[in-house]
Each structure stands twice: as C-alpha cells, then as structure tokens.
Write a structure and sequence with these properties.
By secondary structure, the chain is of the alpha/beta class. It is about 25% helix and about 25% strand. The chain contains 14 helices and 16 strands. Helix 9 links the parallel strand 8 and strand 9. Helix 2 packs across helix 8. The N terminus is likely disordered.
Length: about 475
C-alpha cells in the first residue's frame, strides 16, 4: 500500500511538477501578466514564475502546473501566442544541451517513438534567420533520441527551439541572450482579434472598443460560462461581444437613445444613416452568440434602476471621458417645470447636465460594491493626464480590492489605465463604516479627473511638429 501510494504521488508529480513556457505576444505588454494571473485564478492556481522572471520578456516560465492548466489558459488568452512543455533552456548552446540531457527520459520517450512523426520549428525573437542557419540549429539537436520520421505537413508532435535576442531592434546581438527547447502544447486565441475586428462588425460607433482589448478585459474580469455580465456604458456593445465568446450572458445600459436603438447617423465612411438591423443584438447574432443576449436599456448610470442586491458576476465598462463622447446625466441646474397633465411623453427628450468624471467613477465603484457577487470583478478604463499621474488618482472603495492597474499610452501627456477590482466584502450599513468612507481621503472622488478634458486639449495645442496625435482616448464601450 505504501509503495502504491508513493507511485501514485510520483505519477502525479510527473504530471504537475513540470515547467511550462509561454511565448507572449509583444503588444499590450502591460496587460499580459494580469491576464495570465486571472486565467490561473479561475482554475484556483497560483502564479509561480521562474526566478529570473522579467515582465517585459516575451517568454514566461511557469511552475507548479499541469498540461491541462496550460491548455485552459491557451483556450482563452489573447496575450500569449503559444505554450510549450519546457525540456531544456540555457544562455549558451552548451547550457541548453546540458539542460536537455538532464531532462527525465521517461517524460521525453512517449513523444519520440519510432511509429510517431514530428517536426522541429525554430523561432527567433527580434532577429530573422535565413533558412540555412535554421537548419544548422536543428541539426545541432541530433543528440536528442528522436526515432520517428520527420513530417513537416501533419506531424504527431511539434517541437520548437526558441531564441531570445532581446527587445532592442537597434542593438541585435550575434548570439541570443537565452535559448529554450520544448514540446508544443497549444496556441492562444490571437485569431479572435482578427475574426472579431471592429472593421468587420455589423454595428459600430465612434468609440467601439478594439477587439483585442475587449477580450483582455473579459479575461481580466474572469468571465466564464453562465456568468451574468453588465456594462453600464454599453455603447455599441463591443465588451458584450467579447464576454459572450466566453459563454457569459450579457446586458447593459446607456443614456444614448440612438445608440441603444441603432438609430441616427452611421459611423462608417460611406454610409450616412444606420440601417434597420444595426444594433447590439445584431452584433451577437453575427458571432453566433445571440442566445446569450439578455437585453440593453436606456438608462442613466447615475440613477438607481436595479434592486439593491448582488446580481452580476462581472461589471466591465469603458465610461465616457468627455473627448469624443460627452459626459452627461439626466437633470438640470434650473428649476424643473412640470409638464402638462395631458402630456403623453412620446417625444420627450430628458434634460441633461454635466456628469463629472469624479462622480462617474465614484458612482461606478459604489454600484459595483452593491451589485457584484462576492469575488466578482469590476474592470474599467480610467483616463489619465500623465504629467500629473500618481497612485492616489485610482478610485478606491472599502468593499473592493485593487487587483491590477495597466496603462495604455496614447501620447506623451495622455493615457488610460485598465483598472481591475474584486469584491472582497459586502457593503456595511452601519453608520460607523459609512462615516469612515466619508472621512477617509482614500475613498473620496479624485477631483483632478474633472479637468481631464481641458488638460487633454491643452496638451494637443502644445504639441510641436507635424506629428498627428493617436486616436484620442474615450469610451462608452
């Protein structure tokens, strides 16, 4: 019995106590690790990188995982290109060879059998090798006990030699800084970025969120099958499209009547008015996820319309910043005049007033604290005037813990930050805790956000030279 137990433990260790290599895409660098951490946390697994781990490196080694864990990550990630079971690594060719020779043969042999076929790929980061040099590197691996036949079109097993030449395109070394060799396991979901491109989408607006960032937000929020996800500034529903891809049910609200109903002027170049079937539901129908569409409503995010209880597994949104979309809420600074008693309201357009950015985010966090389930996540974009940025600008709430803070740079003076928060406790109703929230400066709205629009346009006028500014940050997606 003891020997059998030890044998089972050894087998389990051989399956899980391996090291895996993720080849990360070299874009949205600040978002990559939070995405991987979120996908690991869905599986209840810790993030355990190698000792010499660098956040900017395109290669990430992970410990303490099984192959199934890795496959689950790759089934969702848009920040990782490929994953490998790492057989060996080193700074030099000799170090790589020594590492490969030390790798347990019982882990290699199942993939090197005579009846199997294989191929070896060579990937170099930040350097292009001619075909002859690639063949030389493959030939140098002849000490590995491959017994099967080479099949370049449809092999049973794929192996890869990966070389890291650093990240400076103006200073590429002759020899790589580091080398890896491993068995390919799976590719990531980078194809989703192309298949869900906004350019190919049925219904779009001026501020429709980029497909890649939409999927990143859904992963940061740990959206999974049968979750209920809500976007309080839904716009044309780009974030709902991404969440549906991972099996969630979606709903949203927006104050803009035309956007919700797909009416008004089109955002497309050669089209003046939107068509009769341009709406959020049509977008989901386009990708085969219409059955997960709950509904969208015309609503003011500053006004409570939901019953006061935990309803949503995730809240994902991109509020307006006042650049391409105005920050408005219903109301007026003037005295409200009641309409006539016989007014039916069919042509009523609500009076709106400015909705300050500090109030938008304060309301958003308070809403998330009351309406997220325990452990649910809030993911949103925060506009930043970079010369004045400090950690105190990030809105906080006593019921929400800050998980990640990632920057997307637009120019030298503006950016936006993707903020991920997780609900850690229910809102307290006692007066003592309510008073603490009012008196603690950490939980008060940061008033500096209210002048973002003025600072943004002031920064544009100060720019010198003919360089065009990047697409201005704005949201509602």
């Amino acid at each position: 019995m003891y020997l059998q137990s030890r044998s089972n433990m050894a087998l389990q260790c051989s399956r899980t106590c391996r090291q895996y290599l993720l080849h990360l895409a070299h874009d949205n660098i600040d978002f990559r690790l939070p995405e991987i951490k979120a996908l690991l946390s869905i599986q209840g697994k810790p993030f355990d990188p190698s000792e010499n781990f660098k956040e900017t490196s395109p290669f990430l080694r992970l410990n303490g995982l099984s192959e199934d864990n890795i496959r689950n990550i790759m089934a969702r990630t848009v920040c990782a290109k490929s994953a490998f079971e790492l057989w060996g690594h080193g700074k030099t060719t000799d170090e790589l060879k020594s590492s490969l020779l030390k790798y347990p043969s019982e882990r290699m042999l199942p993939f090197l059998q005579e009846e199997s076929t294989y191929k070896i790929n060579v990937y170099t980061f930040n350097k292009t090798l001619v075909f002859k040099d690639r063949i030389k590197k493959i030939d140098a691996l002849d000490f590995l006990p491959f017994q099967g036949k080479v099949n370049l079109k449809d092999p049973d097993h794929v192996f890869c030699l990966l070389e890291d030449y650093g990240t400076d395109p103006n200073n590429i070394p002759e020899e790589p800084f580091y080398r890896y060799f491993g068995r390919w396991i799976a590719d990531g979901q980078r194809d989703l970025i192309r298949s869900h491109s906004v350019k190919k989408r049925h219904f779009i607006g001026n501020t429709s969120m980029d497909a890649g960032l939409s999927f990143i937000m859904a992963n940061h929020a740990r959206v999974k099958e049968h979750d209920l996800v809500y976007d309080p500034f839904v716009g044309t529903g780009s974030l709902l499209v991404a969440c549906c891809q991972f099996g969630a049910y979606v709903c949203g609200t927006d104050i803009d009547y035309n956007t919700i109903h797909g009416a008004g002027k089109s955002s497309r170049t050669n089209q003046k008015w939107r068509g009769p079937d341009e709406n959020i539901r049509a977008n989901l129908r386009q990708y085969g996820t219409e059955r997960q569409y709950v509904d969208v409503l015309i609503s003011d995010a500053s006004k409570a319309i939901w019953r006061r209880e935990a309803l949503f597994d995730a809240i994902i949104t991109d509020p307006p910043y006042g650049i391409r979309e105005s920050t408005r809420r219903t109301g007026s600074h003037k005295d409200i005049i009641k309409p006539p008693e016989d007014f039916c309201g069919e042509s009523h357009v609500p009076v709106s007033m400015e909705y300050r950015l500090s109030d938008i985010f304060s309301d958003l966090l308070n809403f998330a604290a009351h309406h997220l389930v325990m452990g649910g996540r809030l993911v949103y974009w925060l506009p930043i005037y970079r010369p004045e940025y400090c950690e105190e600008m990030i809105p906080l709430h006593p019921c929400l813990s800050l998980i990640s803070n990632c920057e997307q740079v637009f120019s030298t003076h503006t950016s936006r930050r993707l903020i991920t928060m997780e609900k850690k406790k229910e809102p307290e109703v006692c007066e003592e805790d309510a008073l603490a929230c009012l008196t603690d400066p950490r939980y008060g709205p940061y008033q500096g956000l209210d002048s973002f629009r003025e600072k943004y346009f002031s920064g544009l006028t100060k720019r010198s030279g003919p360089e065009e500014p990047r697409t201005p940050p704005d949201g509602r997606e």
